[in-house]
C-alpha cells in the first residue's frame, strides 16, 4: 500500500493522533477532508450551536489552508446534523459567512442521532490548486 499523503493543520496534530485519524489526505489531485466539528484545541465542544458551527468551519478552513486550498476549492460537501428539524435553520443562518459566492459546491445533509457530543459536522472534498502536491 502506498504511503498516505496526510495534511495536518498547525497546532492540532496531537488531537488527531490521540483519536487515530488523519484530518485530510491528498490523492490524485483531490483533498479528502475528514469531518470537522466545532472542537476547541483540546477537543472539547465549543458551547452554543452557532459558535460550534463557526468553529467547525474555522477548523475546516485550517485544514484546507494547510493543503494550500480554500473553501473556493471545495467541490463536495457532506454535513451531519443532530436533530436537523430543530437546528437546520439556525445552522444555515451561519453558513453564508463561510460558503463563498456561486457557483456553490454540491451538498448532502444527513440527520444523525449522535456526533460524539457535537451538533454539527462538515466533511469535504476539494480540488487541489494547480502545482500543489497531489
Could you give a short description of this structure?
With 134 residues, the chain is an alpha+beta fold. It has helices at residues 13-19, 49-66, 84-94, 96-99; strands at 5-7, 24-27, 30-37, 74-82, 106-112, 120-127.
Structure characterization notes:
- This is RidA family protein.
- The chain has 134 residues and is of the alpha+beta class.
- It has one domain: 2-Layer Sandwich (60s Ribosomal Protein L30, Chain: A), CATH 3.30.1330.
- The chain is built from four helices and six strands.
- It has helices spanning 13-19, 49-66, 84-94, 96-99; strands spanning 5-7, 24-27, 30-37, 74-82, 106-112, 120-127.
- Strands 1-2-3-6-4-5 form a six-stranded mixed β-sheet, covered by helices on one side.
- A hairpin with a 2-residue loop joins β2 (24-27) and β3 (30-37).
- The longest helix is centred in the middle third of the chain and has 18 residues, at 49-66.
- It is globular, with a radius of gyration of 14 Å.
Query: Major sheet: order of its strands?
Result: 1-2-3-6-4-5
CATH architecture level-2 label: 2-Layer Sandwich
Topology pattern, helix = H, strand = E: EHEEHEHHEE
* Computed CA radius of gyration, to the nearest angstrom: 14 Å
The average pLDDT value, as a whole number, equals: 93
Tell me about the biggest sheet? 6 strands, mixed
Identify the CATH class: Alpha Beta
**Number of beta strands:** 6
Beta-strand content estimate: 25-35%
The helix content, as a percent range, equals 25-40%
| Overall SS class | alpha+beta
Return the domain count: 1
Put simply, the count of helices is 4
Termini, distance in Å? 17 Å
Uncertain residue ranges: none
CATH superfamily: RutC-like
What name does CATH use for the topology? Answer: 60s Ribosomal Protein L30, Chain: A
